[in-house]
């Protein structure tokens, strides 16, 4: 019998909270029969929704608070005034061990700031990052950082690689995920200095055998490596560019299907195949970005998602909790620190 | 009667040179009856190809050289040893006024290095950039820098905005193109310092009315602004990410069309509509990146393109030459310098 796992939900976070959070939990309940939910939020609004879902009610515990963080609140304000908010209490439940992970569709900046304060950064990690899965021609790729750090040095990038490796093992179930550093490939412009330094660090690290060197923007989709490491500025631009391009192509495609009577008939014939296509490019499928590098699992859902998308974010949290994501990072950091404690350092930072 | 225009072609540059260059010139000849070609390369290989195309032969002049720059040559080596290469001689023809623009599908790094040396940077411009057009839901967007400068300061970005404005006027025919700075939008992480400074400079510049502030990666495809300004690292990653994503979606789509007998029938019915779709996402359509900020027009074609793609790169060169692209930059720089020569500077670099 599998041990039961508790996931804390910020029921008040997101554009259509609390309804989509409860919907998402109900979908996740079917997928993960060993999961209990700690529902943090306004019980006056949660209880009527749960009353209609007796099976979910049975695996849920409501932690009442009438405070929540608004979507436009500054992280500094949220930190100061949000000690009793649903977001903060969900994270605190992870910090003191009552929950294995927290999921919120609320304000990204506030969630990051609160997660750092409540869960604290792991020893050996200088800066947490945001990681997520993106689709590729070969399956799925882990990418980080997606926006937590606008500039990064070589050490940060090395640490992101360690966290990305643990992510790919926990969520994608890979044994020795390959790792690439996102760079540009044009001749004589071999990218930025910190990337060259990070490549040197990686080649001397315990991840050396998994490190495949530099990759370029198009390799995110070809799936040339399992883990793509970059700074939060570049990662955020790349992720949003990919989302925008996917929407553009689907927009062009939709116009094609309307362009003639034959195309309209074709659309009807193709409907089942197009459903499969739509599922593959559905952003809800890849919902759930993880704040990695903390003493606990915090998952950020898109604010505008629906129940299905929120259930997928819960799924990411469950995968990470069940597969010992945090312990994997801890042990890799320990190995790395043992290596670099060597009195004759094998790593040279000279270009 | 329209004045005739000469375009210099590096006939030996690219994966399938000289054949695709000659093919491209022949397609461009039909589109632009007022264009002559200066074909720089090995006449032993060019003449037999031209012999089969008498109409192209009539508007072409061959400048013989048996030297060319290889695709894997280092820019520094190409600069030193390539003084008589087809690439260099094509650029020199622009420098001394025998041609209005040069087009090459050769080695990007070598072309950039040679173009800087041969054409020199425009007064008032610190660093040239690479600019191109990308498709969007509203039409087309100019993006720069796409890889010439891995790091940029606020002044560089302001100058890129000036060059992007001139590009959009010359190639897209816009009167007051809107301009955005590529940034990330997550809360409390308002992007990089140089971007905030560049935004201040732009708000105080002659382009202030056209400046729409920060845009994000997805805005490249929505077409929220006509010109997107970024550093060469981010621009290169974003461009390649968009290309990779487009390929991924088309890959998923192709699999959908094969997934059942009904989908295969639908494919036949949809063929004309899909041709239109394919044209809209065809990378050849957007072939032709321009090195902007030089005393002359140099256009870089993809190395692996075909005749149609190369013809489009020639088309970009023709548009820029016919619409006074360089003069537009010169006059904007003059206005900007007049503004900043003001004894009480309106521009503060304080954050």
Automatic annotation (TrEMBL), chains A, B:
GO terms for biological process: fatty acid biosynthetic process; phospholipid biosynthetic process. It catalyses: a fatty acyl-[ACP] + phosphate = an acyl phosphate + holo-[ACP]. Transmembrane segments: none annotated. Pathway: Lipid metabolism; phospholipid metabolism. Gene3D superfamilies: Isopropylmalate Dehydrogenase. It is found in: Cytoplasm. Signal peptide: none annotated. Its main location: cytoplasm. Its EC number is 2.3.1.274. Keywords: Acyltransferase, Cytoplasm, Lipid biosynthesis, Lipid metabolism, Phospholipid biosynthesis, Phospholipid metabolism, Transferase. Pfam families: FA_synthesis. It comes from the Bacteria. One of its GO terms (cellular component) is cytoplasm. GO terms for molecular function: phosphate:acyl-[acyl carrier protein] acyltransferase activity. The keyword Lipid metabolism applies. Homodimer. Probably interacts with PlsY. Belongs to the PlsX family. Catalyzes the reversible formation of acyl-phosphate (acyl-PO(4)) from acyl-[acyl-carrier-protein] (acyl-ACP). This enzyme utilizes acyl-ACP as fatty acyl donor, but not acyl-CoA. HAMAP family: PlsX. This is Phosphate acyltransferase. It comes from Elstera litoralis. The gene is plsX.
């Amino acid at each position: 019998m599998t041990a039961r796992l508790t996931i804390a939900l910020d029921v008040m976070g997101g554009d259509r909270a609390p309804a989509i959070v409860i919907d998402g939990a109900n979908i996740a309940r079917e997928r993960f029969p060993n999961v209990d939910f700690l529902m943090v939020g306004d019980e006056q609004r949660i209880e009527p929704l749960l009353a209609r879902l007796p099976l979910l009610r049975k695996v849920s515990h409501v932690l009442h608070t009438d405070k929540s963080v608004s979507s436009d609140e500054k992280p500094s304000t949220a930190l100061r005034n949000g000690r009793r908010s649903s977001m903060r209490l969900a994270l605190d439940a992870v910090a003191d061990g009552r929950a294995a992970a927290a999921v919120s569709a609320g304000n990204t900046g506030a969630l990051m700031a609160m997660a750092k304060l409540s869960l604290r950064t792991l020893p050996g990690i200088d800066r947490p990052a945001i990681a997520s899965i993106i689709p590729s021609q070969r399956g799925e790729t882990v990418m980080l950082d997606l926006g937590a750090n606008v500039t990064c040095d070589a050490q940060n990038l090395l640490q992101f690689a360690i966290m990305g490796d643990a992510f790919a093992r926990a969520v994608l179930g890979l044994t020795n995920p390959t790792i690439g550093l996102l760079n540009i490939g044009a001749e004589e412009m071999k990218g930025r200095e910190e990337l060259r330094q990070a490549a040197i660090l990686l080649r001397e690290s315990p991840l050396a055998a998994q490190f495949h060197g530099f990759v370029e923007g198009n390799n995110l989709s070809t799936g040339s490596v399992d883990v793509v490491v970059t700074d939060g500025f570049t990662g955020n631009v790349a992720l949003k560019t990919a989302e925008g391009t996917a929407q553009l192509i689907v927009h062009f495609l939709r116009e094609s299907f309307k362009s003639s009577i034959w195309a309209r008939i074709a659309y009807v014939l193709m409907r089942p195949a197009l459903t499969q296509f739509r599922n593959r490019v559905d952003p809800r499928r890849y919902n759930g970005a993880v704040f990695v590098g903390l003493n606990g699992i915090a998952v950020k859902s898109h604010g505008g998602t629906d129940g299905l998308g929120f259930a997928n974010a819960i799924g990411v949290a469950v995968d990470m909790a069940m597969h010992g994501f945090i312990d994997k990072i801890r042990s890799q950091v320990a190995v790395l620190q043992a290596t670099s404690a060597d009195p004759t350092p094998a790593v040279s930072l000279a270009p």
